[in-house]
Specification:
elongated
Length: about 140
């Protein structure tokens, strides 16, 4: 199945990225995935998970089309942009001290920071910087940065 091969190739590229990138993306993914614990209590949690799924699908499609390049951040922008606007608009729907609200603030902050990086990456891609960000060729060292 092609989608499985493409996803596996994406993951092989991802783990070769600089350690800080792997840590950053893992932090964002785990924070967004934590919404699963609030699905029955806060309707915003479903939107967080939906946006995460859309982002993953778009990024895998972009990877299949363009390789592991700077355009993949577009997957975050098309799903997390509307999500962050929605979360901001509904930020007062629950008392501030709830765990769900704390998570929504974390999601807004981390996803917004990621999108700031993605805007820069997308601008670089559109300006001609289309080189792969990592190499998985045999013997290629992992980027240490």
């Amino acid at each position: 199945m092609r989608i499985v091969r493409v996803t596996a190739s994406f993951l092989r590229h991802f783990v070769r990225a600089p350690r800080w990138v792997v840590a950053w993306v893992t932090l964002i993914a785990l924070t967004n995935c934590a919404a699963v614990f609030f699905v029955g209590h806060d309707p915003r949690a479903k939107w967080v998970l939906f946006a995460l799924a859309v982002s993953a699908v778009v990024m895998i499609w972009l990877f299949a089309r363009f390789g592991y390049s700077r355009i993949m951040g577009l997957g975050h922008l098309v799903s997390w942009g509307p999500l962050v606007v929605f979360l901001w608009a509904t930020r007062s729907s629950l008392p501030d001290a709830t765990a769900a609200n704390v998570l929504m603030w974390l999601v807004m902050g981390l996803n917004s920071a990621a999108m700031a990086i993605d805007v820069i990456d997308l601008a670089r891609f559109l300006s001609g910087d289309r080189a792969p960000m990592v190499s998985i060729h045999a013997g290629a060292p992992r980027d240490p940065n």
